[in-house]
Design a protein that fits this description.
With 386 residues, this protein is an alpha+beta fold. It has five helices and 28 strands. Helices cover 16% and strands 40% of the residues.
C-alpha cells in the first residue's frame, strides 16, 4: 500500500471507522508475512502507543520495514481513548526493527513492549513523527499479550500465582467499549483478590499446593485486551495440578453483577468441561493426584458462593473461611474475611492507576496485631512493581 493510500485509510481514523479501516490495512500486508515464513523463522511482536492525553479513539500512520506486516484482524490493531496497540509479524529479529509512527494532533507519551518502555526517537524535521526499535522475537501472537496488560504480581512464589489487574476506563478496548464501564466490579475484585490470597496463606492451602508442585492462580479480569476478550466481569481462585495451565486444572470464573456480588461460578475442569455453580452450590476442587473421586484425586477445597454475594472457602480439614460483605452489606467498599465463622479481617483496597499506587489496608478483627497497610508502587504503564 502506498504512503498516500495508507494514510487515507488509517491515519486519523475515528473509533467508529476503525472496524472498517484496520482490517483492510492489515489484509494488504499479508503477503509480506508469507514471504517472511518462506525466508525462515517467523517472529511476532506487539507494541502499545500511550497517548499523552486521552481523546477520541483513533489510529496513527505506522510504517514497517520491508518484509514485516500487521497481523490481520481488527482485534490485533486496536484503539482506545488512551492508547493504540498493534501486532506485527516478520522474520525473527532479536535486535529489533525500526518502526515509524506519524500521528498528527496526538502526542505519544511512551511506547510499551513486553512490560517495558522502548526508547523513543522524535524526528526533528517532523514534530508528528517518532521511531523506535521493536524486537520481533516472540514465537506466537499470544506470547505478546503482556504488552497489552497493566498488571502487578505481588506473589509469584512456590504454590502461588497472584495477579492484580489495573483497569482504566480510558483504556477500555474490544467489547468493553460497547458496554457501561464496570466500575463496581473493577473495584471489588481487588478487595476479594487480596482477601482470597490471605485465606490461602493462613489456611495452609498455598503451602500444601507448593509441596505437591502445584499452584493457585488468583487473578482478576482485563478490560483492554481485544485478543482475550475477558468478559463479563469476573475473578479467579483456580488450582493448577502442576506448574501452570498446561497441567490438569480447576479454573474457576466468579462472575460479578453490577453491585459486585458473585452470582455464578463457571469452573472449567480438565476432562469435564465447564461445571456451572450458582449461589449455594458447592464447587469441589481436587488435585488430580491418585484415583480417588473418579480419578480427580484428593479434595483440595470447596468453594461456595454465599447469599450475600461473597464466597465460602472450605479446606477439607477446616476451619472454614469466607469472603463476606462489609459493614454496609455489600462488597463495594470493603470485604470481611471470616475464619471459623468469626470475623477475622477487614480488607479494602484503593488503586490510583494513573500514578501507579495501590494501597491495601487490612484490619485485624480478632487480633489488632494483624492490622497492616501495604502500599504497592508500580509502573502505571506496565504494572511492574517498583
Amino acid at each position: 500500500m502506498s504512503t498516500l493510500s495508507r494514510r487515507t485509510v488509517v491515519a486519523g481514523a475515528s473509533g467508529a471507522g476503525l472496524a472498517l479501516a484496520l482490517p483492510r490495512a492489515a489484509h494488504a500486508a499479508e503477503p509480506h508475512a508469507a514471504e517472511a515464513a518462506q525466508a525462515g523463522e517467523v517472529g511476532y511482536a506487539a507494541f502499545r502507543l500511550v497517548r499523552a492525553w486521552p481523546g477520541e479513539p483513533a489510529a496513527p500512520e505506522i510504517s514497517l520495514p520491508a518484509g514485516y506486516a500487521f497481523v490481520p484482524g481488527e482485534q490485533y490493531q486496536v484503539a482506545s481513548r488512551a492508547e493504540y496497540y498493534s501486532f506485527v509479524s516478520g522474520p525473527r529479529n532479536d535486535a529489533g526493527v525500526e518502526v515509524s509512527v506519524r500521528w498528527p494532533g496526538v502526542r505519544v507519551r511512551a511506547v510499551v513492549h513486553m512490560e517495558r518502555r522502548l526508547a523513543l526517537r522524535r524526528d526533528p524535521a517532523d514534530r508528528h513523527r517518532l521511531t523506535f526499535t521493536l524486537p520481533v522475537n516472540q514465537p506466537t501472537i499470544g506470547a505478546n499479550e503482556p504488552t497489552l496488560q497493566i498488571w502487578s504480581h505481588p506473589d509469584l512464589s512456590a504454590g502461588m500465582y497472584f495477579k492484580l489487574d489495573h483497569n482504566d476506563p480510558d483504556r477500555a478496548a474490544g467489547p468493553w467499549q460497547e458496554v457501561p464501564w464496570p466500575a463496581h466490579e473493577v473495584r471489588s475484585q481487588l478487595h476479594q483478590l487480596v482477601a482470597a490470597h490471605a485465606v490461602l496463606l493462613d489456611s495452609g492451602l498455598k503451602a500444601t499446593a507448593a509441596a505437591k508442585g502445584h499452584r493457585w492462580f488468583v487473578a482478576g479480569f482485563e478490560t483492554n485486551n481485544a485478543v482475550h476478550a475477558d468478559n463479563p466481569p469476573h475473578w479467579h481462585v483456580s488450582y493448577n495440578s502442576g506448574a501452570d495451565f498446561s497441567a490438569p486444572t480447576h479454573n474457576t470464573h466468579f462472575w460479578l453483577d453490577a453491585d459486585a456480588r458473585n452470582f455464578y461460578n463457571g469452573m472449567d475442569v480438565t476432562g469435564l468441561g465447564r461445571l456451572r455453580h450458582y449461589v449455594g452450590d458447592p464447587a469441589a476442587v481436587y488435585d488430580f493426584v491418585g484415583d480417588a473421586n473418579g480419578g480427580r484425586g484428593e479434595l483440595v477445597v470447596t468453594l461456595t458462593i454465599r447469599p450475600d454475594g461473597g464466597l465460602d472457602i472450605a479446606p477439607p480439614q477446616g476451619p472454614g473461611y469466607a469472603i463476606a460483605a462489609g459493614r454496609d452489606g455489600s462488597l463495594l467498599d470493603e470485604v470481611t474475611v471470616e475464619r471459623g465463622g468469626r470475623p477475622w479481617l477487614r480488607v479494602t483496597t484503593e488503586d490510583h492507576y494513573h500514578v501507579g499506587l495501590l494501597t491495601v489496608r487490612v484490619r485485624g478483627l480478632l487480633d489488632p496485631a494483624e492490622s497492616h497497610t501495604r502500599v504497592l508502587r508500580y509502573d502505571p504503564l506496565t504494572g511492574v512493581l517498583v
